[in-house]
Design a protein that fits this description.
The chain has 145 residues and is of the alpha+beta class. The chain has five helices and seven strands; from the N terminus they run H-E-H-E-H-E-E-E-H-E-E-H. The strands form two sheets. It has a four-stranded mixed β-sheet with strand order 2-1-3-4, covered by helices on one side. The chain has a three-stranded antiparallel β-sheet with strand order 5-6-7. The longest helix has 23 residues.
Length: 145
């Protein structure tokens, strides 16, 4: 060893080079957050899943951005590629591409006509909002792919 000490005494030679950050974009498309309990619960579950995922994502060098967008017309839905409310996508991919619909009372009241909204399947059960574990798994799976 030289009299100058080990190479690690000089912080510049052993410091890990910063890894470039990767980006995950989570998109939440919905019809209404004032009336629709399905959309409201989806928003709450998404916020919880994101909060739980952030520490692991930070350790992996992944930034997460959540974009929420109210869809106000069939034309806007078509332009966004939204086929049902609510929709959650990660980097443009639906977290549950198999679409199932059911009568949504709150949206039917809001629209003044019978309206079907998305239901979610997870662990053999059907939900009116995506469960936190489904969202968390989808976020983490996309982060490592």
């Amino acid at each position: 060893m030289s009299s100058k000490g080990s190479c690690c005494a000089d912080s510049c030679c052993c410091a890990a080079a910063p890894r470039p950050k990767r980006l995950l974009e989570v998109e939440f498309l919905y019809l209404d957050l004032d009336t629709c309990t399905w959309c409201q619960e989806t928003e709450r579950n998404l916020e919880e899943a994101v909060a739980r995922a952030r520490p692991a994502l930070a350790a992996m060098g992944v930034d997460l951005v959540v974009k929420k967008r109210q869809v106000r017309s069939p034309q806007e839905a078509a332009a966004l590629g939204m086929i049902a409310s609510p929709t959650v996508r990660i980097n443009g991919e639906d977290v549950q591409p198999e679409l199932e619909l059911a009568h949504c009372g709150p949206c039917s009241e809001l629209c003044g006509e019978d309206t079907d909204c998305r239901v979610w399947r997870y662990d053999g059960q059907t939900y009116t909002a995506p469960p936190v574990p489904l969202l968390l798994q989808s976020i983490l799976r996309k982060a490592v792919s």
